[in-house]
Amino acid sequence: MKILVIQQKMIGDVLTSSILFEALRNEYPNAELHYLVYAHTTPVLEHNPFIDKILHFDENTKKAIQFTSFLKEVKKEKYDAVIDVYAMLGSAITSKYSRASIRVSFKKWYTKPFHTHHFSRNITSQTNAGPAIEKRLRMLEPILKNIPKEIKPKIYLTEKERSNAKESLASAGIVDRKLLLMISVLGSTDSKTFPFKYLAEILDLIAAKTDAQFLFNYIPKQKEDALKVYELCNAHTQKSIFLKSFGHDLREFLALTSHCDALIGNEGGAVNMAKALNVPTFAIFSPGVPKENWSMYENGTTNISVHIKDYHPELFDKYSAKEVKQKSKELYNLFQPSYFEKKLLNFITPYQ
């Protein structure tokens, strides 16, 4: 059995879809399992024991000549099954061109002719894994006899990566016995980023109540925005922010996060990665992102999320989903930290 999974999207999506490989490997221990992703998402897949080969799709591959060549390479692999989680026209063409006898994807009118099995994205979650996990596992029905109800995404770090991160933290002056929090400072876009002034208020609150130390999740080109949050914090909080200690690449960030007591901040890839490292998370959802779709493994203790809809559901009766996305910044400005202050402090209490 030779199977290709396609997930050409963001890091969180790629990590979430990686659960399919564990389920496939459990039933087909000798299968050859390949994963087609964008190259920049590969770090979350390194050392994954269930994946045999990672294929990359990049901007050049989208060009007609390169795409034709790419399709020929896919065809040569002679896959028995293709699971197209991405479910876009390009991935549907790849699926069809593979000539696999089983081609699975989500139901869309314009990709329907390319696949043999189709599943709706709409699902009522049966477990706290959430619909993002369950709807992916459901795609395995044409291939597996025994489909697990849930599988948690996992990230695999080496001991060397973790020890290097620990040494880096120690050399920066971070005290091992004190609370260490990774802060997801930025969302994937401006409209998905919690207002800086509110995030600074949250950090001031935590610093006033605990002896927490803070790391910021950002990359060098985002340093200016990270500094804006830092400068909005009061002097007491600033002393506890280790701005120079950050992951210079994704694997470094993962290793640093693995030593943190929790991750707090903007919902997105960083939250999904922390969960895959078994690091507790407190996620703040953008108004335009339905919490019910991405609140994976919520349990009210180690994984918690908040959304303005939790406090002002009437706002979402007034606007369509499209209008909510357009008004995301406006709605975010209404989402004051005081709404979830108590929930946040209760979340960090066990880790002090």
Automatic annotation (TrEMBL):
Q: Where in the sequence is the signal peptide annotated? A: none
Q: Which InterPro entries match?
A: Glyco_trans_9, LPS_LOS_Heptosyltrfase
* Keyword set, alphabetical order: Glycosyltransferase, Transferase
Give the top-rank taxon of the lineage listed in the UniProt record for this protein.
Bacteria
Entry's Gene Ontology cellular component terms? cytosol
Name the Gene Ontology molecular function terms of this record.
Answer: ADP-heptose-lipopolysaccharide heptosyltransferase activity
Q: List GO BP terms, alphabetically.
A: lipopolysaccharide core region biosynthetic process
Provide the protein name.
Glycosyltransferase family 9 protein
Organism of origin is Gillisia hiemivivida
